[in-house]
Amino acid sequence: MDKISVLVIDSNVGFLQLLVRFLEEHASTIISIVSVATTPAAAVTAAAAHHPQIAILAINGTWFDGDLITALRAVRTRLCIIAIAQLDIQEYRTAALAAGATRFLSKDTLHRDLLPTVRELADDPACA
Q1: pLDDT tens string for the chain (128 positions)?
Q2: In degrees rounded to 5, what are phi and psi of residue 91?
């Protein structure tokens, strides 16, 4: 079985590093991190260049309007996007899902929910 290709996106470099380390420590046998990005432009470029199956996108006050999700979808229509936010705010959840995110998770539950969600989406034909 091929590894699940993942793009990790977060403007907070510290959290980005923690997330990458978590994925490497707990899922290196099933996940290949193909790229990381700290800006919307870098994320779109990475999605176009590396063709990941899944993008893990940390949304915040500047990205919650969905523009980045829309841009990622424009370059990679079969990309599954897991939007994550510090708080499970209905406004963030609604905007992310309306823009095209596949799932929405709170950072508070990532340790429990992220890997099962990645595994579930990897089996989804829409994430090819």
Answers
A1: 589 999 999 988 999 999 999 999 999 899 999 999 999 999 999 999 999 999 999 987 655 567 888 899 899 989 999 999 988 888 888 888 888 999 999 988 999 999 999 999 998 888 86
A2: -60, -45
Q: Is residue 127 part of a domain?
A: no
User: How many angstroms separate the CA atoms of 31 and 121, rounded?
Assistant: 12
Residues 6+ apart with CB under 8 A from 100: 66, 69, 70, 72, 73, 81
CATH classification of the domain holding 63: 3.40.50.2300
- What pTM value is reported for the model? 0.93
2 within a domain of the structure (yes/no): no
72 is a domain residue: yes
Note down the domain range covering 39.
8-121
Dist CA 39 CA 28 (whole Å):
24
**What whole-number distance in Å separates Cα of residue 121 and Cα of residue 90?**
22
Number of separate domains in the chain: 1
As beta bridge partners, residue 83 has 57, 104
φ, ψ (nearest 5 deg) of residue 38? -115, 0
